[in-house]
C-alpha cells in the first residue's frame, strides 16, 4: 500500500491541486492488516481504493453496458424517465435547489422492488435491466458490508456488525446513481482524438470552445450516507479535497472501487472519520466519463449515533443522535456544497 503525503504538483490560479498515492487496501490481505489500513485511510482522507474486492468483472461490465445503452438513446426518450425527483433521469440539474453540472444521470432506489418498477423507464428489456442492476447493487452492498466489518474490527469494537447491520437491514435506504459526463475539450488545447475511443452518444452535447480550461461536472460536496462505493470508466475528472487544503485528482481505475466516508459515518465515529469533500471537473477528454455510485444508507428510522466504544479518547459527543430520515430531509433542503452535519452539532460544540 502507498500512502504518500500530498506534495504540491501544480497550481492553477488560486486553486491548489496536488498528486498523491491513493491509499490502496488489498481485501485479500490478512484481515488485521486490512482493517488497520482502512481505519487509517478513513481517518487521514475519508477515502481509499480497494483491490481484490470480489465483485466479478462480468457484473460490472453488464451494468456498464445497460447504462451505456440508456445514455445512448435519443434525448426525447431519456427525458421520459425524468425529471429526477430525486429518482429517475436527470440532466444538468442536481437536487432541488439550483445546483447545476455538466452531466446527465440516473438515480435509483437500490431495493429490488423499486428497481423492478422503474426498469421499464430505462430499457426495452426491463427484466434484464432490473436483474443486472440488482446483481450489481447486491455485489457492492456486500462489499460495503465487508468494509464496514473491517472498520469495526480496526476500531476494536467487539460486535463487528455494528455498522454493517445498518445497511444490510431490509429497510435500508441505499441508492444507486450512474453519472455520464460529456466529452470536454478546452480551447487551444492540442488534445487529439484517439481512434479507438468507444464514444457514447454526444450528439446533444456542446463541444464548442469554452472560455475555461475545465468545466464543473459535479460540484464539490460530501456524500450524506455512511459509505459510497464508486466505480468509473477510464476517464478522469474526480478530485478529492484533503485536510491540508489540496484538491487532488484521482486517477481512474475501471477494475477497482473507490470508497468515500459519508457524513453519517463521520457522525457514527464521533468525528474520528471525516466525510471527504469531492467534485468532478471535466478535463480534456474526447470520451465521456461514466461513473456508478452505490450510496450505502440505513433505514429512514435508524438512529445515527456514535457507539460508546468509539469514545475511548474523546468523551464528548460532537453530534446529537439523529434519525437518517431527519438528516435526509435537511440534506434535500440544502445546496450541494453545504455542510449539513453542522445542523446536528451539540450546542456545546463551536
Ligand atoms: C443538491 C442536492 C443533490 C443531492 C441532495 C442535495 O440537496 C444535497 C446532496 C446531494 C447528494 C450528493 C450525494 C449523492 O449523489 C446524492 C444522491 C445524495 O444523497 O446527496 C445527491 C443528492 C441528489 O442528487 O439527489
Ligand atoms: O461522478 C463521479 O465520479 C462522482 C459523483 C458524485 O460524487 C456523486 O454522484 O455523489
Ligand atoms: Fe459524491
UniProtKB/TrEMBL annotation:
Q: Which SUPFAM superfamilies match?
A: Clavaminate synthase-like
Q: What class of enzyme is it?
A: oxidoreductase
* Alphabetic keyword roster: Dioxygenase, Iron, Metal-binding, Oxidoreductase, Vitamin C
Q: Metal-binding as a keyword?
A: yes
Give the top-rank taxon of the lineage listed in the UniProt record for this protein. Eukaryota
Which positions fall inside the Fe2OG dioxygenase domain? 171-298
Question: What's the Enzyme Commission number for this chain?
Answer: 1.14.11.13
Q: Where is this region: Disordered?
A: 188-216
Q: Which reaction does it catalyse?
A: gibberellin A1 + 2-oxoglutarate + O2 = gibberellin A8 + succinate + CO2
Q: Which GO terms describe its biological process?
A: coumarin biosynthetic process; gibberellin metabolic process; response to molecule of fungal origin
Family matches, as InterPro entries: DIOX_N, IPNS-like_FE2OG_OXY, IPNS-like_sf, Iron_ascorbate_oxido_reductase, Oxoglu/Fe-dep_dioxygenase_dom
GO molecular function annotation: gibberellin 2-beta-dioxygenase activity; L-ascorbic acid binding; metal ion binding
In the record, the note on similarity to other proteins reads:
Belongs to the iron/ascorbate-dependent oxidoreductase family. GA2OX subfamily.
In its UniProt entry, what is this protein called? gibberellin 2beta-dioxygenase
Amino acid at each position: 500500500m502507498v500512502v504518500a503525503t500530498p506534495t504540491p504538483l501544480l497550481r492553477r490560479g488560486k486553486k491548489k491541486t496536488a498528486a498523491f498515492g491513493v491509499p490502496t487496501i488489498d481485501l485479500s490481505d490478512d484481515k488485521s492488516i486490512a482493517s488497520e489500513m482502512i481505519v487509517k485511510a478513513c481517518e487521514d482522507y475519508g477515502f481509499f481504493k480497494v483491490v481484490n474486492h470480489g465483485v466479478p468483472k462480468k457484473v460490472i461490465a453488464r451494468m456498464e453496458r445497460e447504462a451505456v445503452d440508456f445514455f445512448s438513446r435519443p434525448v426525447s426518450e431519456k427525458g421520459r424517465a425524468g425529471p429526477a425527483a430525486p429518482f429517475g433521469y436527470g440532466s444538468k440539474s442536481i437536487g432541488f435547489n439550483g445546483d447545476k453540472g455538466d452531466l446527465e444521470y440516473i438515480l435509483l432506489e437500490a431495493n429490488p422492488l423499486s428497481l423492478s418498477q422503474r426498469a421499464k423507464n430505462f430499457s426495452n428489456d426491463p427484466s434484464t435491466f432490473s436483474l443486472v442492476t440488482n446483481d450489481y447493487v447486491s455485489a457492492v452492498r456486500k462489499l460495503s458490508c465487508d468494509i464496514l466489518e473491517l472498520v469495526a474490527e480496526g476500531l476494536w469494537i467487539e460486535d463487528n456488525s455494528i455498522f454493517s447491520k445498518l445497511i444490510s437491514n431490509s429497510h435500508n435506504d441505499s441508492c444507486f446513481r450512474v453519472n455520464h459526463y460529456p466529452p470536454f475539450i478546452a480551447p487551444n488545447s492540442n488534445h487529439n482524438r484517439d481512434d479507438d475511443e468507444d464514444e457514447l452518444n454526444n450528439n446533444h452535447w456542446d463541444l464548442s470552445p469554452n472560455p475555461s480550461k475545465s468545466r464543473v461536472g459535479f460540484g464539490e460536496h460530501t456524500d450524506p450516507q455512511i459509505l459510497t462505493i464508486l466505480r468509473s470508466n477510464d476517464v478522469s475528472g474526480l478530485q478529492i479535497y484533503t485536510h491540508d487544503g489540496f484538491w487532488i485528482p484521482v486517477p481512474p481505475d475501471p477494475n477497482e472501487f473507490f470508497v468515500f466516508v459519508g457524513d453519517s459515518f463521520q457522525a457514527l465515529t464521533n468525528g474520528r472519520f471525516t466525510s471527504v469533500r469531492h467534485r468532478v471537473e471535466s478535463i480534456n477528454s474526447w470520451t465521456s466519463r461514466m461513473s456508478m455510485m452505490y450510496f450505502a444508507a440505513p433505514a429512514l428510522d435508524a438512529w445515527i449515533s456514535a457507539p460508546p466504544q468509539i469514545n475511548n479518547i474523546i468523551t464528548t459527543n460532537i453530534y446529537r443522535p439523529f434519525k437518517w430520515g431527519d438528516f435526509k430531509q435537511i440534506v434535500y433542503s440544502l445546496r450541494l456544497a453545504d455542510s449539513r452535519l453542522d445542523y446536528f452539532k451539540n450546542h456545546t460544540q463551536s
